[in-house]
Amino acid sequence: MKHTELIKKLNLEQKCALLSGETVFTTRDFSEKGIPAITLSDGPNGVRKQAGAADHLGLNPSVPATCFPTSATVANSWDPALGEAIGEALGEEAAAQEVAVLLGPGLNIKRSPLCGRNFEYFSEDPFLSGKMAAGYVRGIQKNGIAACPKHFAANSQELRRMASDSILDERTLRELYLTGFEIVVKEAKPRTIMSSYNLINGTYANENEHLLKDILRRDWGFDGAVVTDWGGSNDHALGVKNGSTLEMPFPGGDAIRELKAAVEHGKISEADVDARLDELLELVLTTHAAVEKAPRTFDAEAHHALARRAAAESVVLLQNEGGLLPLKAGERVAVVGDFARTPRYQGAGSSAVNSIKVDSVLEQLAESGLQSVGFAPGFDRQGRPDDARKAEAVALARKADTVLLFLGLDEIKESEGIDRSDMKLAVNQLDLLEAISQVNPNVVVVLSAGASLETPWLKNCRALVYGALGGQAGAGAMLDVLTGKVCPSGKLAETWANAYHETPARAHFGGEGRTVEYRESLYVGYRYHQTAGIPAAFPFGYGLSYTSFEYRDLKAGPAGVTLTVTNTGSVAGAEIVQLYVAKPDAKIFRPAQELKGFARVFLNPGESREVTIPLDDKAFRYWNVRTNHWEVEGGCYELRVGASCEDIRLRAVITVEGTAAPNPYEGKDLLHYQTAEVRKITDAEFEALLGRPIPESKIKIDRNMTLGELSHGRSPLGWAASAVLGRLLRKSMENGKPDLNILFQYNMPLRALAKMTNGAVSMGMVDGIVMEAQGFWIIGLLRVAYEAIKNVILNAQLEKRLHQAERTKENPA
């Protein structure tokens, strides 16, 4: 341990107190012992340090900061160096605001396009996610503060996110849902990792020995601090025993007493507490020193310029019939769509940034060189029909050479705490598009959305430009692309399916019950579409340009490939060259091909450059559930180089030496996993893959029953509470402004009352509420009252002891 002498100065109660927060976003300090407090803050795409009363959902105002494009946007740049530049700016702003730990980036796999938080995540592919996230982490940590990649792990939906159980086989867990985190840990060495809310195969991530000890710390060599998601601790003592360092936000004295009692009763050892405390002290002391010496100002204009560059490099040109784009100087354009006036530039929830400034297309239009014939909002943002607005927009479209129609998902559709209900644009937006296309065929649709959409309406526009959620400078960046000042170079980091029913996880995403079955296994995104032969509207890695590129002279081997790329067009631009690995004769089922490398190269017209894409130790491996180890199936592999997963330009066959491991699936009937027909997986097949029975999925009346599920209990008080929450939630949705606090409460398990109320509720009180819900009405209420009084008294006594102990400089006996 690094801080043995300091730890010796603390008694057991002080040690336990340090392993949970003192406020919503700060750790506890013992200044007399030389232990300062540090501040943690949300920050995947901008620092969100709240100026007044703090909350974890971003409901109260925060200090102004640069809002960069979201991770889902920047992933389309396929540029880890850009991620590093953004990370460095985020780190500068965090330190300037005296934030020591920035909670981000998020790199959960986009298992389903409906996950409400997909705008915060990079990709459906772990290799791309890991490389992009590693860039961010390197940048954030350059000035000595800590990044905190999240949410570790298999956290792919918002519904019941604090108590859902992700059921998946070990191979799928390792290859798909952990590989991105492995890349980050090994290549960028983050000082912290955030554990996820959910269970994984029956055990909460934050107390999961296999996840935190076996994999994160032993296999990957992580020696930093694990921080719980806010309210994500279930059994604090087991968390500490199994590798979780800091419980957040401020669970109060009950958590301290719980941990102390666990040591005294032998549930865990004091050595467990000391190990976690050593990790915390290393984090606190090093980051506090970095914050102390950091300047309190930053160059806001330079960061705005970086945000604009990042947004521009991440724009994806999806359709451009007849070369409608780029628009010529002086071209007469009608600007239609509410998003042109009030941009949708970030997602809702804990990542929401109080932006220093926000550009809009209408404000930036004068500098674009285009001639505007006017603006019309065109539609109601929340989807309500408005014939007058539609008629106004259609009349304006008649006057223009080209219509710039700004469409997208509104704030209700994409938010932390709630999953999307579909992949569709609002009907009133599509009606407007169709009406405009009938009077002016030159329609350019500009999309603002943090996730993929169904696009059966493509026939009604000649050009489609995806800006995702472009941050505070996204409007200017989009105009740069539309006018040709920037050649579009973004490529999709996720597959756009033709329809939601053609996505692989559809049958087992966002359903009732406590378990979430990952029956699709490895077949997520392009891995599914290509292996099962299901065409996509826009495939993974796809994106058009204003120029063209030629690939030639491929040289390949197990260490990687080298090729020459030439810009054969008349415009300078960047190409993203992608390397996929395939084994067509594989005996062990696997996707048709998988991304294992990529390179972004900028070329002037006519310029050629040799590009090298290395292959690392993850290129040919698979997880063998029989040997419990990474193995390689020997034989011939195809290395495929292309402009997307569907646009393969060059191929080479190489021979790779295998590890001669036994086939882990020998004797098992996994027919539909061989063919990737994952929508046909039977219970027997999924059980064979898991190697155990499928766990029961039903609501139980216990500490992990959510507030919204109290209607399933036996208490009239519970029924009333659930009904009130449900009514308030529905009302907020109908008003077009989802109440994130109510959303959080509705999906919050009862135990979180003891973790999220600043010590006002103890776990004993929660147990009284559970008794009430189980039908022990009088006894349950009496226990709540008794435990409440007990909690107040014990908390006061605890704080008195801690402060007295801090004032004495004598070593504890």
Structural account:
GO terms for molecular function: beta-glucosidase activity. It comes from Faecalibacterium prausnitzii. The chain has 23 helices and 26 strands. The protein has a six-stranded mixed β-sheet. It has a four-stranded mixed β-sheet with strand order 7-6-4-16, with no helix packed on it. A four-stranded antiparallel β-sheet has the order 21-20-25-26, with no helix packed on it. With 813 residues, the chain is of the alpha/beta class. It is globular, with a radius of gyration of 27 Å. Helix 11 packs across helix 16.
Topology:
Blueprint: H1 4-8, H2 12-18, E1 40-42, H3 71-74, H4 80-96, E2 101-103, H5 126-140, E3 146-147, E4 165-167, H6 170-188, E5 192-195, E6 199-200, E7 203-204, H7 209-219, E8 225-228, H8 236-241, H9 253-264, H10 270-293, H11 300-314, E9 316-320, E10 332-336, H12 338-341, H13 361-364, E11 371-376, H14 387-397, E12 402-408, H15 427-439, E13 443-448, E14 463-466, H16 474-482, E15 496-497, E16 515-517, H17 526-532, E17 536-538, E18 549-557, E19 560-567, E20 573-582, E21 594-603, E22 608-614, E23 621-624, E24 629-632, E25 635-642, E26 648-656, H18 671-675, H19 683-690, H20 716-734, H21 740-746, H22 763-773, H23 777-807
Parallel strand pairs: 1-2, 2-3, 4-6, 4-16, 5-8, 10-11, 10-12, 12-13, 13-14
Antiparallel strand pairs: 6-7, 9-14, 15-17, 18-19, 19-22, 20-21, 20-25, 23-24, 25-26
Helix pairs in contact: 2-9, 2-10, 4-5, 4-11, 5-6, 11-16, 14-15, 20-21, 22-23
Organism: Faecalibacterium prausnitzii
Family: Belongs to the glycosyl hydrolase 3 family.
GO molecular function, one term: beta-glucosidase activity
